[in-house]
Amino acid sequence: MKLSYLKALNRALGDELAVDPSVFLLGEDIRAAASNVTAGLYERFGSDRVLDTPLSEQAFTNFATGAALAGLRPVIEFQIPSLLFLVFEQIVNQAHKFSLMTGGQCKVPVTYVVPGSGSRTGWAGQHSDHPYSLFAHVGVKTVVPATPSDAYGLLVSAIRDDDPVVVFAPSGALGVRDDVDFSTLAPVPLGVGRIARAGTDVTVVALGHLVHDALAAADELSSLGISIEVFDPRTVYPLDVDGLAESVAKTRRLVVIDDSNRTSGFAAEVLAVAAERFDLDAPPRRVTRPDGAVLPFALALDRAVQPGRDQLVTAIHAVLEER
Amino acid sequence: MTSQDLYRTVRLIRRFEERAIDFVRSGEIDGGIHPYIGQEAIAAGVCAALGPSDVITSTHRGHGHVLARGVNPARLFAELMGRESGLNKGRGGSMHAADFSLGILGANAIVGAAGSIATGAAWAARRQGRDTVAATFFGDGAMNEGMLLEAFNLAALWQVPVIFVCENNGYATTMPVESAVAGSVTARAQAFGIPGFTIDGQDPEKVLAATKSAVGRARSGKGPTFLECTTYRFDAHHTFEHRARLTYRTTEEVSAGRSRDPVEIQGARLTAVDRADVDAEVEALLDAAAGIALGSAHPDPAAALAYLYASPEVMR
After folding, report:
1. Which InterPro entries does this UniProt record tie to the protein (chain B) (predicted)?
2. HEC readout, chain B
3. Chain B neighbors of A88, CB-CB under 8 A
4. ipTM entry
């Protein structure tokens, strides 16, 4: 059966609502399912489980924290990735800090889902951010699934986890479809990466939609006799350092492609880990958005500041040439 | 709840805070505190109207709220001193005291943040079939925080059993309320259709009576109530002010503000003998509490990030 990424998210939400009465969804336009992620769920579960909210992101994000403190497992859908800037206080300074600050008296199992993160064609400066590195930096568990099966499995694990978890579903991955045996859909543990393609010459680390670009680049390069291993960490934080180490031990060359701004981004962290721990035959490379990037509207400009396949291929050639 | 019980609470808070200021001065408490002195009637009156299954959220000026809710003063002292036996095992401090076993969902150091948390907790409790009312404390400064106004809207829309308790002490740190709040405080809540009342926050009996009717309204499914409790902060915004010599309040104004003292207002309702008995009881309790806290172990720095995650993954 074909399963689309979007349908996988929808299925994960429906399954968790069905098995756990403490799970409920809240967010803007989720009754009408404007983003399609919650399609059919209001009709199935009713207004107490699928809570349509006014445009009050800060209050409803804290509301979810309060509901979690009272024993529920809220899942918030944010239609726009940049809204996470508006609720950074509520996620980072509130939800994330309660466990430590109370000496472990409570837990805050809230999931924040962003369907359509990163650039969406034509949505311009304030709707096109991809701030997963920010959440990793502050220590909030953060996942960026690449495939429908992982979208299902990581969202389920995020909901079942006892801490706040942010789930980025990249716009560039929402259209991906997989051949899936529905009976094999299962939770995917947080913090465990996967080898998306095995290879021997260079390890390419990619997340979300960029995994598909990395796989395409690997196909392209295989005709030149270059064998690429694509490592998909799936979870940005905590990073599967051991899984990455295993891959790099084999290839001894590393390139990271990352849809974050360059400074202090996810790729910067992976390269720092590599510098501390890995034995490489060539300096590692990263392909990212430029420093301080704001995505301009015109499509050619938007594409010009996003990390892409051509830059990735150039970076792979560079690490193969250097010794 | 008798007059004597209310007096015991206001007296306990007053003497706790005075001792805590001494511990700041002597260096036993790092970083200082936001003393609740002058505002004791509000915590005492509100918490006296709540039942055991109810919940509260508190503020940076929160010792009074948690004491009125019944925390062990030894564990609160120990928390302020950063000891392992503290309410939060020394991980929260003065601005984050929490005791979930008493329904205290934490004091919150971000002004206006807790109103929406309390609203969510009360909504969730009702959804799970519990008869819980939430009381959320905040100051006049929070009336300018958008997320609190958003919370009023959610609470009113969904008829959430929450009581918004605004402690209007006239100042957001040094900013006078007249220079900060356009229109009236209660009118802001009333604009959302929330019944809003201004009450004398120096009189515990009046606060108790107003909160009792708000609790009744919440339990009968009629939704939120807003209580503006007018009060005066007798001491500093924060103990740093004891050294900072700020001049935002005149001596005359402070004297006038201190003339309506909740401890005296409630104390006058007791016989001299009863009052002396309560005072002695409170001193004995606090003597013992301070002794326990001072004798408690400091946390192990190796466990500085214990409790960071409820379900720990592999963290570096």
Report:
1. DH_E1, PDH_E1_Alpha_Subunit, THDP-binding
2. CCHHHHHHHHHHHHHHHHHHHHHHHCCCCCCCCCCCCCCHHHHHHHHHCCCCCCEEEEECCCHHHHHHCCCCHHHHHHHHCCCCCCCCCCCCCHHHCCEHHHCEEEEECCCCCHHHHHHHHHHHHHHCCCCCCEEEEEEHHHHHCHHHHHHHHHHHHCCCCEEEEEEECCEECCEEHHHHCCCCHHHHHHCCCCCEEEEECCCHHHHHHHHHHHHHHHHCCCCCEEEEEECCCCCCCCCCHHHHCCCCCCHHHHHHHHCCCHHHHHHCCCCHHHHHHHHHHHHHHHHHHHHHHHCCCCCCHHHCCCCCCCCCCCCC
3. none
4. 0.95
